[in-house]
Amino acid sequence: MTHELRVEVLEDPSHGFSGVPAQRGGDAPDAAADGCHAELRVGLLPAGTGVLMYAMSPSGSGARGWHQAYLEVSPEELMDRADRLLTIWRDDVVHRRTTEPAPGQRVGGRPLAEAVDLSELRDVTDPLVSRLADEGYDLLQVVLDGTGYDLGRFREFLMGELAGERQLRISFDSEWQLPWSMLAVDPAGCASPWEAFLGHRHQIEQARTGYGWDHAPLGTRERASVSLNKDTTLDDVAKADEVHKLLEERSVLTVRTLAGELLAALSRPVLQEDVMYFWCHGHFVDTGAAGQVLAVRLSDTEDIDGPVVRRKRRSYFRSTQSRFRPFVLLNACDSARAARPGRLKHLGQELVDQGADGVLAPQIEIPELFAAEYAYAFLDRYLTGTHTAGAIGQWLVRHFARDFHNPLALVYSLNGGLYTRLDLSS
């Protein structure tokens, strides 16, 4: 007797068998070397005046299926609490002032921002990290707090997965972009507060939303094509010159220092770049009734924001005759911050919408010394083509925590790109 099987199509990466699906890092032979063996997809959807949260059981969990529940916290409180967490990190880490003289320090200085290696300040960083982990755990509890039966079951499932021993690749798909890597499981159940943070335990991305499309191919290249879009006033920052030299040695490098040069490149249908690196300042620009939008500046005074990128590429949007697929390291303060639903999109969000393979950026102000050190370590590994962006991001969190007692790698957020690795064949 024949049976009609019920099929639910969750994704269509080949666009109805009309294109070649993007190759994901998890399918590569070295996926096990990245330390992750299961995927967890978590989403938040608007539901009336509230939020529906859902998740798919990861492979190997023994109970495959969808889980969902309505949250009892409002979207407004979620975003307010997220902003509070980011502010705490900014004030207590980046803006922390020295109030008492100590060897090698100046009163009124910012000791946690003026060096990358904070090992000699562990009597400061260790209790601070413990507090930050408590704050991250509190926000996760706020997200999942409530008395409903379904919410209780969902909370039990999700907290169990997040706090479990398995490393996961987690994609958070949501209109409300929370600082997921800075959230934490119960620190009391971890060997150290550092290990409580989700960004330390797992590989995490803010998932790309919507369908992908086929870009114009480039063919096989011998070397990566990379652009360095910089503010020359940052040339004297320690390690910045080493990043520049690294890119010159390992890629075909294009250097841009003026907004006009970058906008001219964005105006062309095919952008032949595998990596776009931004080394500049980020700031918020008032946009009237729409509030504020995140913009960056190179060496001149012209703002480059999401709306101008959309204007330059409007005629190429989702065209198979155009190409915009770089992985973007947007090393500018606050550049991972997302505009709230219904507002003008910030620069990082717009780059992802235009087709970028992922955007890695800090969610708060980031000290220049740390930003340059982080960029060198990331690009050095990414340009080998061996590791995915998600694996490198988690490795950097652990590296800076273990070797330097520095928590700032946790503030970098990956918007798409969890499975992206440098691929010179297209």
Describe this structure in words.
The protein has helices at 75-94, 122-144, 149-163, 198-201, 240-250, 259-266, 306-313, 347-353, 368-382, 389-404, and strands at residues 39-47, 50-56, 66-70, 169-174, 203-206, 224-230, 251-256, 275-279, 281-286, 292-297, 304-305, 327-331, 358-362, 412-415. Helix 5 runs parallel beside helix 9, helix 7 runs parallel beside helix 8 and helix 9 (368-382) packs across helix 10. The model is unreliable at 3-33 (pLDDT under 50). The chain contains 10 helices and 14 strands. Strands 7-6-8-12-13-14 form a 6-stranded mixed sheet, with helices on both faces. Strands 3-2-1-4-5 form a 5-stranded mixed sheet. A 3-stranded antiparallel sheet has the order 9-10-11. The chain has 2 domains: 70-206, no CATH class; 224-415, Rossmann fold (3-Layer(aba) Sandwich), CATH 3.40.50.1460. By secondary structure, it is α/β, with parallel strands linked by helices. It is 30% helix and 18% strand. The radius of gyration is 21 Å and the shape is globular.
Query: What's the CATH architecture of the largest domain?
Result: 3-Layer(aba) Sandwich
Q: Helix count, per DSSP?
A: 10
- Runs with pLDDT <50, length 5+? 3-33
The overall average pLDDT, rounded, is 89
Approximately what portion of the residues adopt beta-strand conformation? 15-25%
Secondary-structure element order, N to C: EEEHHHEHEEHEHEEEEHEHEHHE
CATH third-level topology of the largest domain: Rossmann fold
Overall tally of structural domains: 2
